[in-house]
Amino acid sequence: MARLAGRAMVVVVLAGGAVVMILPFYWMLVTAVSPAPEITAFPPRWVPSRIVWDHFREAWTTAPWPVYYKNSAVVAVVSVGCSMFFGLFAGYAFAVYSFPLQTPLFLLILGTLMVPVQVTSVALYVLLARWGLVDTYTGILAPNLASAFAVFLIRQAIRSIPIDLVDAARMDGAGEVRIVLGIVAPLIKPVLAAVAMILFLNSWNDFLWPVIVINSEHMRTLPVGIALFKDPYGFINYGPLMAATVIAVAPMLAAYALSQRFMIRGVALTGMK
Amino acid sequence: MGRPPWWGVLLVLLLLVAGLPGAFAQPKTTITIWYPAGDITASAFHFRDPTLFLPFEVAHNVKVEPVALVYDTMQQKIFAAAAARDVADILFVDQSWVPGFLKEDMLEPVDPAKARRWLDSVSPEMVELSDYGGGKMFGYPQYGIDVYGITWNKAHFREAGLDPERPPQTWDELRDYAKRLTVRDAAGNITRVGYAIRHVGHPHGVVHKHLWAIWAAGADLVDNPLALKGGQPKFNNPAGRAALKLVHDMIYVDRSTSLAFPDPRAAFLRGIASMQISETVSIRARQPREAPGMPWGTGWGTALPPVPKAGMRPVTNLNAWMYTVPRQARNKELAWRLIEWVNSEIKDYELAKRFEATPRFKANWAKEPFKSDSYAQTLLKMYPYGRKYPINLGLNGIMDALGAAIQNAWHNRMSIEEALALADRQARQAILDAAK
Amino acid sequence: MTLPSSPAGRLAPRLSRGATPGAGGGVSRVLRRAYRRHYFHAYLFVAPVLIAFGLFRVWPAVQTLYFSLFKVELLRGQLTFVGLQNFADLVGDAIFRQAFVNTVIYAAVIVPVAAGLGLGLAVLCHEPFRGREVLKAIYFAPMVTSTVAAAMVWWWLYNPQYGLFNVFLRLLHLPTSSWLLSSTMALPSIILFSVWKTLGYNMVIYLAGLQGVPQEFYEVATLDGAGAWQRFWRITLPLLAPVTAFILIYNGIFAFQVFDQVFVLTGGGPANSTNVVVLELYRQAFQRYRFGYASAQAMVLFLLILGITLLQFRVSRRYEVTY
Fold first, then answer.
1. Least CB-CB distance to B17: which of A135, A141, A231?
2. Does pTM top 0.95 for this prediction?
3. Partner of B88 for a Cys bridge, out of B34, B65, B158, B382, CB 3.0 to 4.6 A?
């Protein structure tokens, strides 16, 4: 009996916490669709008296959201694509082959985790400026064409699969590339999916490097676009601002709602954030 | 059984990455203009009007592309882009940034003959803003110059039993009025401030919004504001301390202003601040849309900022946004042609009239509607008291230092004395560095 | 084209776990050719990653160290050697010191608080009940949202006049706060946001860790008469120690790199009360245009991260022994 009451208490506490966690999202939505006077009403209106789309209209016309989306998508797809493709082969090489400098090279790759772009941004910027790559897709992508995490996790995954499968394929005369793409990759699909998902999330939400390297409006990614949408001091237009935020986060949240088990498991599996 | 051409896949991917910048390069006949987004300068949103440059575009078969940048990061983007040789052809910049750009030798000078012609035909305050010594110019100031004034809400004045046609003239009056205008809720929280201050964000903005007091008290940013190099900071003195103390007292003694109202103009337009001092042109432009019930004349008024003691000469900021061409621009010639076109006497009249701003050419002041427009005439009377920002090449560093001092003092992180002493040291260093 | 790769292929994985290629003498010509082939493949396969990292990670890292010894004037294309002057300037720079202290405070608060809350939630969430997956998803949701967008929402919540935080205080007839506009409340406000943002991550990692704790331990303990509280302290916490070590260190490394939320919520203000190392570095480089000086600051950040990473090696080695 006491145990049951204890469980009930636990659920109540967790649910209460969840309400607090979700409140910012809820308030974002309410602000985005409330008529302007209700946004600043006191006491607050938890449910708008009617739904208005004015804020969305204003947010949509003030900034080129489709352009931001396109940029974010291009950057995410290319960076995830390259990171996964390169990471798969590098992970395979480190897991299966033995070659001179193997360990130093592997440590070098892992070592880059210690020098994030926060540290190297200045020098990287200078380098890209000399090459005229500032404010280009290549410039945004440069530090994200490969991922040490991807190499590491893929190597771990490949080491855990039975090597006989690879050998059997070699007996059958399959080339190395075919083995990687046709045999190894399908075997570690869950890891690949999880890593790709997290790399995609990171790229999609990346801010520091894009805000440094992007100048023009037509190159802005979503986070940069939304950050620059905010009028630094104005505290009047919260309706359009929240509408803009909804525009920026809605697809990701929708994807999350549809696949949250997969995404959460991916994080638990890889430990990446 | 064909092996997949793995090297081919690799090659294609690499080429794809390498080829991206080329594929998305801009067409060459575009003239780009960078301007600040938002309401920071009222005249900047004119660039959003697609018809603005249309006649020029047609006549010269080019495309003019205005790009909005954020005020707070705009200087940074300009520096960064100039280094990358990827800067806009025209920079529409705050005049108080110009010394910083000059320090890096980044701006093209205006052709001397054209500069002379300009200085001869514009009104005196424009001459003062344009001239960087001996008739040398680095750009053209925009119409509708930023003159700072105190703006007050006449309804609030009436409510508080004050004369709605008479703004505070002295610092004592400012404090007294502000106290009377402040409104609190039952719990004692301020819901409306008598006077709104700016204390966060870009240090230039913080300094700009309080310079009226610093200047009126007799302090200044540097001792010789018209010299490009050298000199000493001139705010770590009794006058500077008095200017910072004025607002400090309003925050902590009178409780007639608050750190919780960070944007004076927005607060004023929203009706949660009764007075504020900043660019009047901004209130003029935003009021019809944001505060339709508070029209110019009957709803709000503007005047010169108050002075420490009755009988002293008022002083206020005179600033402009400038059309400049960076040395790294790609289409310099076309850029200058566009600037000269948009700053011609005819365009000055046309655009100032259309956007309800003040003109620059003497000839245009003699025409309607400016001749008898009460707002324009009010500004014209304020212009002679305007003072422009120093042109010292170390201005950025000086502004940063003083802006930090203002924040440190008002947030009680340091005493006013400590804050100004620290800023004095930093400003000295900035002046020294800039003179190298 | 078919046969030669097979025997070497069978050897290669074993070799990669310790043995030296070619050891043991009688390696046939075919096999040796195969090794060469695999060297070729090995280097080919790691080359793209090495090139990408070499160019855009390692080389800039080396350059950062180099620049930190120079006055860098990018616009004029000039490098002037100044020795350790940049580092000497750092020591006397009150603003950098403030940014450093703020960063350390931020990390010292956010890391244990978010880890503790994450652990608590994970323990409560461990036993199945209806709606558990939904709750988990809700707690994790801030993690998938971009920091910038989420911070935008919180910027609105923190608004002193109309934001929800002050609205609640007003409803309770309590004095309101200026939150992000107060030099004392701004840093705690940012920390609060970050806790909200990272809580779900820690919870998920702890939940994964809890799955590895054998149920029998609890059963035995319960038979011994241990209460829930004791079970937590005696079993859960010690067994989760490696997970905790991972969370603390991993979050610590991220905490020292905090930027996005500070940029959006306060821009480092008011009066530098929320300035952090990465923001200060960003300003020095891209606003003041002092690339050399900013590089010196980047080196300090690197040393911080290096310190934590070395700590990680020590700690994880200890747990390897225990397990």
1. A141
2. no
3. B34
